[in-house]
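We include this case.
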Amino acid sequence: MLYLTNDLGLLPFFLPLGIVGFYRYLWYFIKLMAWAIYKPVRPKLNPTYRPEQDVTIIVPTIDAGEEFKIAAKSWLACGPKEIIIITETKMLGPLQELANEVDPIRIRVLTVSKANKRLQMVAGVNATTTELLVFADDDAIWKPTMLDYILACFEDLKMGGVGTCQTVHAVDPSGYQTVWEVLAGFRLSIRNIEVAASTHLDGGVCCLSGRTAAYRTLILKDPAFQYGFQNDLWLGKYPLNSGDDKFLTRWMVTHGWNTFVQVCPEAELYSTFKNNWRFIKQVLRWTRNTWRSDFRSLFTERVIWHRHPYVAFTMVDKIFNPLTLLSGPVLVLIFAIKQNTQVGHTNAPLPIWNVLLSYITWLLLTRGLKLLPHLIQRPRDVIHLPAWLLFNYYFAVMKVYALFTLHEVGWGTRAGVGTTLAADITKEDNNRIMNDKMEAAPPHVELDVTPLERAHTRRLS
C-alpha cells in the first residue's frame, strides 16, 4: 500500500475509496457497539399480562403445509388463549383438518372470500377478544419462552408493537441448508444486529417483521387504522397488500406508540425461506416495500425525524448504500486499468489480476468479520462467503432496479396475489350480499339490512 500511495497521481482514486470505506466501517462499528450494549426486557415475576388470558395468535395463510403443524405446536407450547387461522374459502377444508390434528379446541379457522393478506389480518383482528394479539407466519417456529418475553415489553403502557429476532429453519428435514438459505441466514444475522442497535439507541426500528409481531388489539380495531390498512395505495393508484408489517410499524410511530424488538435467545423464532432461486423474488418484493415505506416515513409523514432520528438516518443511509457499495469495485477497476496504461509511471505497474485478487481477498476478509456473530454459531457457513459477496453486489443493482419498478405490487412468489385492495374485495362481498337479499326479498317488502351494514357499505363506496 505504501508503494501505491507514493504515486500522488493515484490519489484521486484512493481518496474517495478511503473516505467511503472509513464511513462504512465507522457506521458498522457504531451499530456493533450499540448491539453489544443492548439489553432485552426480562419478564417480571408477577406480570400484568398472561398468555392464557391476554393473547390471541392470528395466522393469515392460503397454503399451509406440514410445517404448519410444527409451528402450531410451538405456538401452543407458549400457552395462548386462542389461535385464529384466516384463509380463503376454498382452503377451509384442508386447513380445518390440519387444525383438528393439532388442537381442535384452541385453534379456530375463519375464512375470507379471496386470498388477500391484509383482508385476512383485519378479519383476524375483528375476531380477537384478548387485549393483545400476535401476527405469525404459518411457518414461524417459536421457543416456549417467546410469549413471556413479548408480553414483558407491554408492561410499558405506551408500548404498541413488539418484534422478535430471527434465524433460518432449514426446509430439508436433515437440517441441510442450501446456499439460498445460508444467504437468508446472513441477512437475518445482520438484521438482528441492526434492530438491536436502533432499539437501544433511540427506541425505534425500521420494521417490526411480520413473521412474528405483537400489538395491542385496541390499536388495530380502530376504524381509522383498518380503513387506511385496507385502502393503502402507492402514488394514489397502485394497491399495496404486501408490506403490511411496514404499514403497521409506521402507524405505531405516527400515532405515538412505542416499539421494541426482543433480540435474545428466548425470543428467537425459526422461519423457513425459499431454498432455491425464488429467494431472489422474495428479496425483490421486500426491497420494493422498503423503498416505498422509507420514502413515506422520511418525506411524507416525517414523524420519524424527531421520534427516532437514528432510524431516520439509517433509512437515508440505505438510499445511498447502492452507490457507496458499487463505487468500490468501479474505482479499483479504473485504477487497475489506469496504472497499466499510464505513461511515465515512476513504479512498475501491478498486473490487473494482482490488483483485483487483492481487492477480492480484502472484501472477503471484511465481510467475514461483519458476519462473525453468525459464523461463531455456524462456522460451516464460511464457505459461502464468496456467494455472499456476489449477492451483495447483485443486491445493490437490484435495489436500483426496484427503485424504478415501485409500481410493481404483485406478490412475486404467488401469481395473482397482491394486486387488489382488501377494501375492494370487501366492497364486492357487500354488493353480492345486497344483491342476494334483493333477489330473495318478496315484492314491496323492505330488506332486512342493519344500520351497520349500511354504514359499512357507504363508507367503502
Observations:
- Residues 309-341 form the longest helix (33 residues).
- The first strand starts at residue 55 and ends at 60.
- Strands lie at 55-60, 82-88, 107-112, 132-136, 159-168, 212-216, 233-234, 238-239, 258-262, 268-271.
